[in-house]
């Protein structure tokens, strides 16, 4: 039976359950006080809807948000082998990606460019931007279906090889990515995660890792589109940025790029098709202060719209899961 303290319904319309809205009926209702009832409800609904938006509850602080997220039974994860700049707010809580406000971040599943990723991800809006700043989301199952059989088979059979070059003023440093200044720690991490690495003459680091292009959800059995080829590929950069970078460095020294698992180049036309599919499946809503969005990271991708003015959205992740990529 639904708790009388809140309502539940699709945020947009009945044939699009993403995100499912759970809304407090009265102002001032503490999110943490509702945790047992919300946890039972979300455990039922998250695997169906893929994402739940909690609205109208009192949260206020990152620490209280953290208490709510840990209430689902798993320790929060640190942001290891990250691909974007973030700052630690409190234990297990990070800022959302610290890209300039004018930049658009396309849909993606968190850490789908690796063999290890969180199954759960939460976003807490402490301050909604006055203009823009939405966190668009998209159904990874629907993206998988819409991409089409030919592209799915090609990507799934070949896999994807992500290449990264750290630091040198072009991307995040290896010290920040691996949370250490000790090269031996980097070697141990890479060896444990199937990542090949090369220390370059200039002191920089290059890594390569072959990962999945599609995946199967461990609980639902659903096939999902699960990679970041459309983000890592050099074609994702604006043309003038791409040309400038390639004037500065050789292709192998680009901050990031992606190939098929055998090292052969990805077709830009296919990546454009994939970007079009993601745009078609994108669902957008405007943040309100104190909103909490909880996603199943395999079932639902997320992004960020450009914004103006102040915006503060923090993130938590939990439930590590790994793929066996051969």
Strand content: 25-35%
Radius of gyration: 20 Å
Shape: globular
**Quick one: CATH superfamily of the largest domain?**
Clavaminate synthase-like
- Major beta-sheet overview: 8 strands, mixed
Assigned CATH class of the largest domain: Alpha Beta
State the total count of DSSP E strands.
20
Strand order of the largest sheet: 1-2-3-17-7-20-5-4
Domain count: the total is 2
The CATH topology of the largest domain corresponds to Double-stranded beta-helix
Helix content: 25-40%
CATH architecture assignment of the largest domain: 4-Layer Sandwich
Give me some keywords for this one.
326 residues, alpha+beta, Double-stranded beta-helix, 2 domains, four-stranded antiparallel beta sheet, 9 helices, 20 strands, globular
Your description of this structure?
With 326 residues, the chain is of the alpha+beta class. The chain folds into two domains: 6-131 and 283-322, 4-Layer Sandwich (Double-stranded beta-helix); 142-277, Double-stranded beta-helix, CATH 3.60.130. Helix content is 26%, strand content 29%. The chain has helices at residues 35-49, 62-70, 140-147, 149-158, 174-178, 183-192, 229-232, 239-248, 268-281, and strands at residues 6-10, 20-24, 51-55, 88-90, 93-95, 105-108, 116-127, 131-132, 137-139, 160-165, 196-199, 205-211, 214-216, 223-225, 256-260, 282-283, 292-296, 300-304, 307-308, 312-322. Strands 1-2-3-17-7-20-5-4 form an eight-stranded mixed beta sheet. α3 (140-147) crosses α9. The mean pLDDT is 93.
């Amino acid at each position: 039976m639904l708790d009388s303290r809140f309502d539940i319904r699709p945020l947009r319309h009945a044939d699009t359950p993403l995100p499912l809205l759970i809304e407090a009926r009265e102002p001032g209702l503490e999110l943490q006080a509702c945790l047992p009832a919300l946890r039972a409800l979300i455990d039922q609904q998250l695997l169906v809807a893929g994402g739940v938006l909690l609205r109208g509850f009192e949260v206020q602080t990152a620490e209280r948000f953290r208490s709510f997220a840990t209430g689902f039974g798993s320790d929060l994860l640190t942001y290891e082998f990250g691909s974007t700049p973030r700052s630690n707010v409190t234990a297990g809580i990070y800022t959302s990606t610290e890209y300039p406000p004018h930049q658009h971040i396309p849909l993606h599943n968190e850490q789908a460019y690796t063999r290890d990723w969180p199954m759960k991800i939460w976003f807490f809006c402490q301050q909604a931007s006055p203009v823009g700043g939405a966190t668009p989301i998209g159904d990874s199952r629907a993206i998988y279906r819409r991409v089409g059989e030919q592209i799915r088979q090609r990507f799934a059979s070949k896999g994807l090889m992500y290449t990264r070059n750290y630091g040198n003023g072009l991307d995040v440093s290896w010290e920040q990515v691996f949370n250490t200044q000790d090269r031996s720690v980097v070697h141990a991490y890479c060896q444990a995660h199937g990542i090949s690495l090369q220390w370059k003459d200039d002191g920089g680091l290059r890594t390569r890792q072959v990962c999945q292009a599609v995946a199967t959800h461990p609980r639902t059995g659903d096939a999902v589109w699960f990679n970041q080829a459309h983000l890592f590929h050099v074609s994702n950069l604006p043309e003038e940025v791409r040309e400038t970078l390639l004037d500065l460095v050789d292709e192998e020294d680009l901050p990031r790029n992606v190939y098929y698992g055998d090292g052969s180049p990805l077709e830009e036309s296919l990546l454009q098709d994939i970007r079009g599919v993601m745009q078609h499946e994108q669902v957008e809503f405007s943040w309100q202060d104190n909103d909490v969005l909880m996603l199943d990271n395999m079932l639902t991708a997320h992004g960020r719209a450009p914004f103006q003015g102040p915006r503060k959205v923090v993130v938590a992740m939990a439930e590590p899961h790994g793929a066996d990529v051969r």
